[in-house]
Specification:
The protein is mainly beta. It is built from one helix and 17 strands.
């Protein structure tokens, strides 16, 4: 598959090799499959109770936020669940270290109580909206009935973050210079990103399965049509 304009990474899992490394501990699984796909004939399929991620690290060649935290990402996601989970869940993670060299995970899309949010942990969990009682405006967890969704995000060196579903920005997940716009929670400092992990992680013991396709990363917005 030809990369979209400006993308530095594009992987639709159609070739013999992939930029992403499947990472899961049995019985959890994640692997390239032909059972469902957004375009082409293949995608990445996960089935897990605990954790199953497709991991990419080669994109992040620098050591600072200026080099590693200035990009757009895009992928297509199909969640096979029919009922949204209530405990903390993660679909996407940007991992790295902060200014004190502490390992950190920025769960940039996941959530709790059946609603999507972004989350990070310092002394305690910080959410872009209320963890115990998310707003009705927070987007719901995607279910199988929703079909394929296009998920886009942008991270910036000043610890700002934006998230989009099918081209529409999710204001309830917006972070401006390290502060969540809705909750006011502190998200700074975000880690200097050294790995991108897409898939599923759950802290409540329920199994989930789904498909990921056409992951793209680049310095400018890639969009859902490319």
């Amino acid at each position: 598959m030809m990369p979209p304009i400006s993308a530095t990474l594009c992987d639709g899992f159609e070739g013999a090799t992939s930029d992403f490394t499947p990472t899961a501990a049995a019985p959890d699984t994640i692997a390239v499959a032909t059972t469902k796909f957004y375009r082409g004939a293949k995608s990445m399929y996960f089935s897990a109770t605990n954790s199953a991620y497709a991991v990419e690290t080669k994109t992040f060649t620098g050591t600072t936020k200026a080099t590693n935290n200035a990009f757009w990402g895009r992928y297509f996601f199909f969640n096979n669940m029919t009922t949204a989970p209530m405990s903390h869940s993660v679909f996407g993670d940007m991992s790295g270290t902060n200014a004190t060299a502490t390992a950190m995970d920025f769960h940039f899309v996941g959530g709790s109580r059946g609603k999507l949010q972004s989350q990070i942990q310092f002394a305690a969990d910080q959410y872009t909206d209320n963890m115990k009682a998310p707003s009705a405006n927070d987007p719901p967890f995607p279910l199988a009935a929703d079909g394929w969704q296009c998920w886009e995000w942008q991270i910036q060196p000043d610890d700002s973050f934006d998230f989009y579903i099918n081209g529409a920005e999710v204001m309830e997940m917006k972070i401006v210079a390290g502060k969540a716009m809705m909750s006011g929670a502190n998200f700074a400092p975000l880690p200097v990103v050294t790995s991108l992990k897409l898939g599923w992680q759950y802290f409540g013991g329920s199994m989930n399965s789904g498909w990921i396709d056409e992951i793209a990363v680049g310095p400018n917005r890639i969009g859902c049509g490319n």
